[in-house]
Amino acid sequence: MSVEKTAVIVAGGSGMGAAAAKRLAADGFKVAILSSSGKGEALAKELGGIGVTGSNQSNEDLRRLADLTLERYGRIDVLVNSGGHGPRAPILEITDEQWHTGMDVYLMNVIRPVRIVAPQMVKQKAGAIINISTAWVAEPNAMFPTSAVFRAGLAAYTKIFANTYAADNVRMNNVLPGWIDSLPATEERRDSVPMQRYGTSEEIAATIAFLASEGAGYITGQNIRVDGGIIRAI
Q1: Confidence grade of residue 86 (pLDDT, cut at 50, 70, 90)
Q2: I need a surface site. Which of 55, 93, 135, 211 has the fewest CB within 10 A?
Q3: Which superkingdom heads the taxonomic lineage of this protein's source (predicted)?
Q4: What DSSP string describes 196-207?
């Protein structure tokens, strides 16, 4: 009898997180979605899965989502970590409080759910964790300082995690979107992209679905750019 695979999507109520949930459901995964707006709970109902309205900054809400998923499905095969938007300001004007908020939004949004879900994946000897990051990890943009700083930290965290749990067949990779259609479009941003267009949330979701699949079973600890060629550094 085939195993029914399950994907947990954190911050999956809209944008790239919601697109990932829809794509994974279309690929046959049972989905469990957390979002703060209630949209994730509604989407999960539409997809025949589990929805929790709560915050990815709350260990209690994340634990509730994981416990409900394990209670219903008995396993967690994929964890997708999306997130919101952190503080933006000239770098010397960012307050201590804003830096701490940026860490919560862009780094702890991964560390918290991984700490809860990864032990189950290690127990299963199988699991894939995919984090939605940013194309500007290696080439930081002053427009998004807290994102650039803490997602660089996420890249380091991902490599340490991958090295630690690869032998348990638990993988972690980051998807690095460029300008995506879930953001407000501007002509200047579009013109900066070699492909001369914004990417789509569905294209990010397709990359996530590949990294969640058996076809990506030998990929871990990587940062996969999906940015229309805007960053071309090795």
Answers
A1: confident
A2: 93
A3: Bacteria
A4: SS-B-HHHHHHH
